[in-house]
């Protein structure tokens, strides 16, 4: 707390500074799109598989997007094998909503034959090392994997497209409230002290596609508005970084 | 179900699909103490939502789950299969797990758990009929049920969902607006403290719309809060008076 007052955190970061981030794309050749993202020592892997299948009855004119998030049992001593707990479900659903509500994937463009056959995007996330802010690591890994997704031959032939085209680029920025301070990218150590966290997903055009407060500490109106604005600025930095990494990967590939 | 157009959700004259104005909340009714076996209970009708909250406790928690310095609050949000247009599968869903957590964390700041060491409080929320904004109506029911159970609290918790239809912000969204609208932005507050305890948003809003939504939510919440307080007073004022009466007699 005393340190926070002088705009410095336990690990020496400024209140609005992320830990070092790295993005590796195409790490799983058997997946149609994949990425590993590290934020500090937190690591998340994303894999995308694309198949064809039947659309949902209530959305015959849309492809299908399914997002899952799994906690590897070795990622943290508290994690147990088995069905996802409320934390895993929460992280997965925030990634899902950021993409879906942000209309990052034009599901209408994935229709092969209306009501009968559509492309299905399966985005699976694995948290492999949890050292704080799993939410943003998962979100960035998801973005990097989706942007680098190339359709398998069967899907490419059926849709006439070679790769998944994103219409927007959602990025989650997680903020923590500690006393009167708002920090970004809480580390595991800081997560023990935060009153609450707020994950805000923004798009490249500045709109917000998802917000989620977790943990019981309350927020003032002012803190929410400040967080929204900070999340946009930080989101822009993260987005440029991830898209840059994917671009470099693609140019190396070709 | 076919998608409704934005024009169907809001007419040129600013009238919504259920006849409301953009800043008009749905009818809101609260009944306190509707159950006898639960320690506290409330039935909330918010629009067509019918939501029953029952509180069991505080009771001594199992050894392995007790804390020496505070009580534990648990919340289970559950939708009945008959509560929705299409029958809801009775399997407990990821959505229900997520909402249980959101509701618990919305209520927890208001409950003085440090006054209740070693105990557990269970809040069970049953959605009997769902009509958009069920998590908010659940918070509204649960906080009254906690008060009815005599749990020490700093404030009630009151919630409403703001939405966006036809590029216009609207308060207290119903089912149709939730499913076909452009945003769903539920907020819960401790009204007397002016603090926000639940905040989620799905959809697309810009920074200015978020600011305006919070303002709109605050206004609705203060009127819903008054209904919660009146319902509690309705049950407890006669009891208090009759006690006074007994003393006099």
Mean pLDDT of chain B: 94
Order of helices and strands of chain B: HEEEEHEHEEHEEH
CATH architecture of chain B: 2-Layer Sandwich
What is the terminal-to-terminal distance of chain B? 64 Å
Helical segment tally of chain B? 5
Count of strand segments of chain B: 9
CATH H-level superfamily of chain B: GHMP Kinase, N-terminal domain
Helix proportion of residues of chain A, in percent?
Answer: 25-40%
What is the assembly state of the chains in this entry?
heterodimer
Global shape of chain A: globular
User: Which word captures the global form of chain B?
Assistant: globular
CATH topology of chain B: Ribosomal Protein S5, domain 2
Mean pLDDT over the residues of chain A: 95
Q: Which fold name is given in CATH as the topology of chain A?
A: Ribosomal Protein S5, domain 2
Q: Helix- and strand-based class of chain A?
A: alpha+beta
Compute the number of structural domains of chain B. Answer: 1
Question: Order of strands across the widest beta sheet of chain B?
Answer: 1-2-3-5-4
Q: What is the total domain count of chain A? A: 1
CATH class of chain A: Alpha Beta
Helix content of chain B: 25-40%
The topology string of helices and strands of chain A comes to: HEEEEHEEHHEEHEEH
Describe the 3D structure:
The complex is a heterodimer of chains A (254) and B (249). Chain A is of the alpha+beta class and 254 residues long. Chain A contains 6 helices and 10 strands. Chain A starts with a helix and ends with a helix. Chain B has a single domain, classed as GHMP Kinase, N-terminal domain (Ribosomal Protein S5, domain 2, 2-Layer Sandwich). Helices cover 33% and strands 30% of the residues of chain B. With 249 residues, chain B is α+β, with helices and mostly antiparallel strands. The radius of gyration of chain B is 19 Å and the shape is globular. Chain B contains 5 helices and 9 strands. The interface between A and B is medium-sized, with 35 and 33 residues. β10 of chain A pairs antiparallel with β9 of chain B.
């Amino acid at each position: 707390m005393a340190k926070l007052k002088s705009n410095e955190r336990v690990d020496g970061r400024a209140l609005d500074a992320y830990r070092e981030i790295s993005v590796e794309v195409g790490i799983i050749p058997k997946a149609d799109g994949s990425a590993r993202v590290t934020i500090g020592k937190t690591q998340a892997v994303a894999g995308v598989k694309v198949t064809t299948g039947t659309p949902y009855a209530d959305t015959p004119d849309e492809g299908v997007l399914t997002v899952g998030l799994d906690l590897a049992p070795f990622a943290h001593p508290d994690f147990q094998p088995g069905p996802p707990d409320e934390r895993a479900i929460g992280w997965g659903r925030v990634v899902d909503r950021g993409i879906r509500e942000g209309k990052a994937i034009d599901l209408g463009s994935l229709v092969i034959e209306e009501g009968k056959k559509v492309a299905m995007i399966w985005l699976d996330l694995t948290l492999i090392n949890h050292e704080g802010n799993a939410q943003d690591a998962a979100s960035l890994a998801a973005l990097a994997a989706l942007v680098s997704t190339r359709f398998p031959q069967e899907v490419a032939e059926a849709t006439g497209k070679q790769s998944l085209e994103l219409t927007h680029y959602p990025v989650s920025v997680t903020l923590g409230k500690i006393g009167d301070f708002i920090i970004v990218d809480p580390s595991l150590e800081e997560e023990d002290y935060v009153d609450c966290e707020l994950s805000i997903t923004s798009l490249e055009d500045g709109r917000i596609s998802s917000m989620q407060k977790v943990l019981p500490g309350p927020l003032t109106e002012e803190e929410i508005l400040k967080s929204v604005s900070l999340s946009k600025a930080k989101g822009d930095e993260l987005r440029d970084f991830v898209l840059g990494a994917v671009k470099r990967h693609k140019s190396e590939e070709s | 179900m076919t998608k409704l157009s934005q024009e169907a959700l809001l007419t040129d004259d600013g009238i919504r699909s259920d006849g409301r104005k953009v800043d008009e909340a749905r009818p809101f009714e609260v009944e306190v103490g509707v159950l006898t076996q639960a320690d506290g209970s409330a039935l909330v009708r918010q629009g067509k939502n019918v939501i029953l909250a029952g509180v069991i406790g505080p009771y001594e928690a199992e050894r392995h789950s007790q804390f020496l310095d505070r009580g534990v609050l648990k919340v289970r949000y559950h939708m009945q299969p008959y509560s929705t247009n299409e029958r809801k599968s009775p399997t407990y869903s990821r959505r229900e797990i997520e909402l249980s957590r959101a509701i618990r964390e919305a209520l927890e700041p208001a409950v003085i758990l440090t006054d209740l060491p070693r105990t557990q409080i269970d809040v069970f929320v049953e959605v009997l009929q769902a009509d958009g904004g069920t998590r908010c109506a659940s918070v509204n029911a649960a906080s009254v049920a906690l008060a009815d159970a005599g749990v020490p609290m700093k404030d009630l918790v009151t919630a409403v969902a703001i939405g966006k239809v036809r590029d216009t912000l609207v308060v207290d969204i119903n089912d149709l607006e939730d499913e076909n609208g452009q945003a769903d932005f539920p907020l819960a507050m401790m009204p007397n403290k002016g603090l926000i305890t639940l905040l989620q948003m799905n959809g697309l809003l810009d920074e200015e719309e978020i600011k305006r939504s919070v303002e709109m939510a605050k206004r609705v919440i203060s009127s819903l809060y008054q209904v919660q307080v009146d319902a509690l007073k309705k049950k407890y004022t006669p009891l208090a008076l009759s006690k006074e009466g007994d003393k006099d007699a």
